[in-house]
Amino acid sequence: MPLDAQRLLSIDMLPRSVAYGDREAMLYALAVGLGRTGGDSDLRFVYEDGLAVVPSFATVLAFDDSWLADAGIDLAHVVHGALDIAFEQPFAPAGAVDVAFRIAGLSDKGAGKGGLVHQETILSQNGAAACTVLSSLFVRGGGGFGGSVGRDIPSERLPDRTADDSVVVETRLEQALLFRLLGDRNPLHADPAIARASSFDRPILHGACTFGIACATVLRRFCALDPARLGRFAARFAGPLYPGETLGFSFWIDGDRIGFRAVAVERGAIVLDNGLAIVREA
């Protein structure tokens, strides 16, 4: 069913406050693969003494799918399209964020095809902006509503040359079940029957979890595990990742700009594309 553009653009979400504790921050870090090495390097994200917060935790703090029913959108027809986060300051180890949300625009892929809903969420903490989260949801069958309107999420392009760096990261079979405890309870990530009804072989990993794994990988490789050094982090979701598969990352380095792509190694399938990390000086 085509998206109802007028209905979507008229959604008025009141500002809200989201509180979190160090437990949620540490659970997120574990859910995106930090703390598995057995060494000291990841401890700052998974241990309360001197705790630091993974920047992509912003996706959990910004998450709210309560507007989908008001927009007439069936959750079963929705997958993540893209995320793009601009960071102003790191998050406190525990506290609250003020959340301002709006539907920023719609993209029409044509009748019988998909429609994209672009969201903008501004998170503030202690009276100052923390980050702006741009997120696109792809609604299957949602196209043909009359044409694109409003803001789109800009797409980066990777250089046409051999990658400068690469790394392989393993995922775990229970990773989607762990990640959904942070708030996104879409059964697509847990129930095999629902996954098959959506044309997947089995439950898939949340796109936001794959995005978080990529963020943790960039933190390790290019930011010396310092959240304050990450200025922007963005990627397009190009395909599903199944829990337990291996992620193969390729990186293109151009000064403070790190382009990246991630593939499911076992299938040779791209899962994240047109990725960009902007890294600040130490």
UniProtKB/TrEMBL annotation:
Q: Which residues form the Peroxisomal multifunctional enzyme type 2-like N-terminal domain?
A: 20-141
Q: Which CDD domains match?
A: HDE_HSD
Q: Which GO terms describe its molecular function?
A: (3S)-3-hydroxyacyl-CoA dehydrogenase (NAD+) activity; 17-beta-hydroxysteroid dehydrogenase (NAD+) activity; enoyl-CoA hydratase activity
Q: Which residues form a coiled coil?
A: none
Which Gene Ontology BP terms does the record give? fatty acid beta-oxidation
The record's annotation in InterPro entries points to: HotDog_dom_sf, MaoC-like_dom, MFE-2_N
**Protein name per Swiss-Prot or TrEMBL:** 3-alpha,7-alpha, 12-alpha-trihydroxy-5-beta-cholest-24-enoyl-CoA hydratase
- All copies of the MaoC-like domain together span 159-271
